[in-house]
Amino acid sequence: MNNVILIGLPGAGKSTLGVILAKTLGMHFIDTDIIIQDKTGRLLQEIINTDGVERFLEIEEECILSLNKCHAVISTGGSVVLRSRAMKHLTSDGMIIYLEISYDEMVKRLKNITTRGIVLEPGQSLRDMYDQRIPLYERYADIRINCSGEAFESVVENVVLKIREHTAVLAEHS
């Protein structure tokens, strides 16, 4: 395993947790939302508003496909699971950790929904987005971590423990 990839809903804490986790594991940290902004010179919400959801997803996928072995904790955008090529690339050289939060927790955490760069299809509600993505997160996850109501330090400890357990199991079977 070269990379640790964080997936989950908007507001799950992927970026915040990712920085702390990278420091704890002695790895680099990559935030794919920042890569998108650097590549385009625009904010995520601006891309979605101007170019549309489909073009945003294409840009996100291009950025994911450009990542190679980087020994990093990679924080992805919540929409990354909508592109199977992107997820195949991520799973090829990394452990996928799904940071789970409840719908109510997501709504509570999302204070800046109109400026944050959340991918919602036209007419799609937050509830619809939640229901659409949960099965995808579950499908791709090697490890699932409940983050609802948990302190970041506690979540980081849980993630490190689960990574070590998962790595030991993989080593045992190879």
UniProtKB/TrEMBL annotation:
InterPro entries assigned: P-loop_NTPase, Shikimate/glucono_kinase, Shikimate_kinase/TSH1
Protein name per UniProt: Shikimate kinase
Enzyme superclass (EC): transferase
Keyword ATP-binding tagged: yes
Organism: Methanospirillum hungatei JF-1 (strain ATCC 27890 / DSM 864 / NBRC 100397 / JF-1)
Keyword presence, Amino-acid biosynthesis: yes
Keywords associated with the record: Amino-acid biosynthesis, Aromatic amino acid biosynthesis, ATP-binding, Kinase, Nucleotide-binding, Transferase
Enzyme Commission number(s) of this protein: 2.7.1.71
CDD domains: SK
GO biological process: amino acid biosynthetic process; aromatic amino acid family biosynthetic process
Family annotation (Gene3D superfamilies): P-loop containing nucleotide triphosphate hydrolases (3.40.50.300)
GO molecular function: ATP binding; shikimate kinase activity
Pfam families recorded: SKI
GO cellular component: cytosol
UniProt superkingdom: Archaea
